[in-house]
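Anyone else keep sequences and structure tokens together like this?

Example one:
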Amino acid sequence: MALQDPPNSKPVLLLTGPSWPAFWWTVPSAVNRNETPFMVGGKPIYLASAEEGDHDSLVDSLPHEQKTAFSVWDCSIVLAQFLDHNQNMITADQSSPYKDLDLRNRHVLELGSGRGVVGIAAHNLGAASVTLTDIPAALPSLRTIVSLNHAASSVSVVPLDWTDPDLKPISMPVDVVLASDVVWVDALIVPLVRIIEIILKENRGALCVFAYQSRSTRADVKLFGAFEKHGLAISKIDDDHLHPVYRKDVIAVYVISVKIATKNINTQREEL
């Protein structure tokens, strides 16, 4: 029998189009030189070569299952622009509440990179190294995108399938994990939380910055319950600290960390 949302749950939300102008994701040529690119850290991010043509038209021509993987989803725009905006605020005011999310000289790993927008954004913002990860089928495109953005010196592409029961530890230093809109079906929730737990516990002090689009109450409850069960603390970025333009009511950005163990107060008293 098909699963149903609880009676008081929110309806599943349709994926509406972005509320901001469309961006040009293709490397400029003589015919598209005046188009508006997507900028992070003062640099454009490109997803297609001039020979391939308009990125959005290219994606529209793909079968549905490929279109999902090759599309640029709103969460990645919101997260990339938050990281850029936050870094600008840190530069202007060192008392920023999110200065731990300054990516300069940090080792960054992106989960479910898809088109790699957030990972390339981290590169543009001065990360010491960036690792883009996804299932093997997505890797050739990601490698091309790294090349288009002249990022191969500090950006690597590696396979990582969270659903693999024999998943091995990540053998690289990680300061910040980035993930955007990577749980659009319930079956991915527990594997996602599990891989975040593994990486954060292997890298003391590491944080995960997670952009999430709420689509149903059932998924929300399952996701945040899984974080709690796996010993992870989650806090929401104040909306006032998101980019003033690139935000949506149904998208939130969270910071995830390993919970700090605290002793029972009675035990503490006995030790005194």
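And example two:
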Amino acid sequence: MPSIRSSSFHMMILLIASSYYLRFPAAFTTRKVFNGPRNTPVFQRRRIMSASAESNNVEIEIEKKFSVNDQTSAILKSYGFDVVAQREFVDWYFDLPAPQWKFCLDDCWFRYRELKVKVLNNWGWRGAWQVKRGRKGTQDTDGITTYEELQGKAAKELILDLLSEVTVNESIEDNCTSNSQYSTHDIPHLEGGEQLVPFARIETFRTCWEATTSANEFSGLKVDIDKADSGYMVGEVEALCDGVSSQEDVENQKEKIRKFVNLITRESRVGAETPSGKLEFVLMKDNPELYMKCIKAGVINEPN
């Protein structure tokens, strides 16, 4: 006969398992996963807002992109950086239907990011709305960008506030259901934001690097090496500041990023020109009309 302690233990395990079942129904589908094993069983997609994504804090994201090659990893290691994580995610970008694009032309980007996560022995997807908004007068000519970034609840509220200021005509409303390009995908939905339609979808496999010691000159910087489902690869060096950071703090981070990128690109001999980002690459290839409008609006730099 099992002991009371053993029965209690099994009951606790059952309760934990039941809670996961309720959050992630055990209806499995088969989905081809980019840069991973085929036919991986995944949970039926559920968009679950994480507690951290509900934060109302605004972060200032400062970054500079750089070209990568087969020497990049060794160079990062030589500067005391090591791989701290690898992530797979899908980014959806939204705006009003074509040709009424508005927000991206104001350097305000609405994004829904789905991160692949493991729960027990199964893979699922956890999503959050994000907004990246350019800070006027702070973009540099050498490719360093500065954005305010919001996630989760704060991002959703800002999106809905900005949409409330837009007068939507009937032709836009009629086009809101036109998503034939993504008809085979589960398109994210924002309640109250029915005017929005996706204009880009990017699958990414990311390798994250950080300095291994706080004594490192470049400690605090993060390096991401991204490979998109198109095969396009790009690196970025990033620093995050909180929303109340002074302009002096931001400028100091820019100089730190600028110095590190110069060292990486010089040693890897990839050239100092700032490459296109993943989204720019996708727009250039799949949506040239919007790409040219973004260049004319000054939110995307014309390629060298």
